[in-house]
């Protein structure tokens, strides 16, 4: 999984009725665009994420 600053990280809900968490990648901490990523979520929370299988990256050039 590769990302750059400005891409969106989407953590899909794991339980029926649970909403997706969407955040903007503000820093890439791994080599060559790989995880972990520092992410600012919609609620203002900033955290470090190592994405799992329920996560997708939406690259900024395709977010229209």
Textual characterization of the structure:
By secondary structure, the protein is mostly beta strands. 0% of the residues lie in helices and 39% in strands. The chain contains no helices and 5 strands. A 5-stranded antiparallel β-sheet has the order 4-3-2-1-5, with no helix packed on it. A hairpin with a 4-residue loop joins strand 3 (37-41) and strand 4 (46-49). The chain is globular, with a radius of gyration of 11 Å. The protein starts with 7 loop residues before the first strand and ends in a 6-residue tail after the last strand.
> What string gives the helices and strands in order?
EEEEE
Shape: globular
Q: What is the average per-residue confidence, as pLDDT, rounded to a whole number?
A: 91
Instruction: Trace the largest sheet across and list its strands.
Output: 4-3-2-1-5
- Count of extended strands: 5
Distance between the termini: 21 Å
């Amino acid at each position: 999984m590769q990302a750059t600053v400005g891409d969106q990280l989407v953590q899909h809900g794991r339980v029926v009725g649970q909403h997706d968490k969407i955040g903007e990648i503000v820093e890439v901490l791994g080599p060559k665009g790989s995880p972990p990523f520092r992410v600012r979520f919609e609620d203002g929370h900033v955290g470090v994420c190592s994405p799992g299988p329920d996560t997708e990256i939406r690259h900024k050039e395709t977010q229209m």
